[in-house]
Write the structure tokens for this entry.
Amino acid sequence: MTYYAPAMDDEPLAEWAERRDARIGQLRAVPLVTGDGPRASHLNPDAPRAIQRWNGHLWEPHGFAANLAEARLLLFPHTEAAPPSVPGATPKLGPGSGRHRKPTTPR
């Protein structure tokens, strides 16, 4: 078994620092759940969230949200609400012979 270690010169240090600094001020929401259970937001939408801010070196505490909906308002304040979906509406397939379409039967 061979192990590939990336060379030190794969990315110049200046580019790495620029990429790291571009994230400064970025916010993230971390669900506050007990144990080693799943921490994905869609699994615990009613769990409280710790809002963390990236300072260039580590994530530091920034705020608190009561649930996923409130956390999303803090993380994405300028996004518009998605239009409500119409129950029973399904997208219509256009013409074509796509890979997953049922073959047409000759009449």
Q: What stands out?
A: Helices lie at 13-22, 68-75. The radius of gyration is 23 Å.
